[in-house]
Amino acid sequence: MSHPNLSTAENSAIRLNEITKQYRGNTAVDQLSLTVRRGTTLGLLGPNGAGKSTTLKMVMGMLRPTDGDVVVLGMDVFRDGPQLKQRIGYVPEAHHIYRWMTVAEVTRFAEAMYESWNDGICAELMEMFQLPAKRRVRQLSRGMLAKLSLLVALSHEPELLVLDEPLSGLDPIAREEFLDGVLTGVCREENTVVFSSHQLDEVNRLADEVAIINAGQLLVHCPLEDLLHSTKRVRAVLQEGRLPEKIPSEMIWNQVNRRDWQLTLYPFEESTVDEIRDGNPVAEVEVLDLGLDDIFKDFIKGQSKPC
Asked: Is 0.70 surpassed by the pTM of this model?
């Protein structure tokens, strides 16, 4: 399956060139190439174990790929790590903040680490998130801990914000407040955001582009609107006792249940409907729109072997 090259090296915030990561013979990420344009918000989707967190940790320089190159903001993440960390905000799923500190002590500690700390943004987010300055980290709820982590990530005005499953386990109100904080940070400047999430409604809300990975491989990467517009479900009624004979090359998933034949196509072209009708024993054919949830599931279900 082909993946459109959405970015050039000159305007890319992240460029992954055939990166592979192996653990004791198991391949977590498999020759993955992905380029994220500056100013883009990318939603990284995939089932558990797909390689999302491993990929983001390589972007952050926390893991070194077994093979391939990682370039972030035009710099080598390993050679230029200290400089890059001044330009990146990172919110992991597990928040590594000293639990004995108070919220105010965390912000002062973080401020000392960054050259461009913005007290105004920090104070604004403290008020927005209603974080109690004197409370210790160990006394914070999971939602408050996530919001504190986001405050630290945004207060030094990073060019790139990386969010690794930050909404996992949060209640709906905490998720909403966290997303408001992300949007507040992103709207300040033309920042780049890369986030992984299982919450597809939040991907719909935040993302300009979507990348779906499974078993460490890239299945599709394109603008969200294009993915929604160019992925269609075709439902055909087969003639009694007949099976499909000619399956289109654009098929990413299909299923036959008696006379009911359903197939999902990407990229969808109107001419493909005529090919299905002319090349198969079908009595009726209709085309259905799909939401992101169904599109995501069909890409994953349809990957019976690596693309």
From this structure: yes
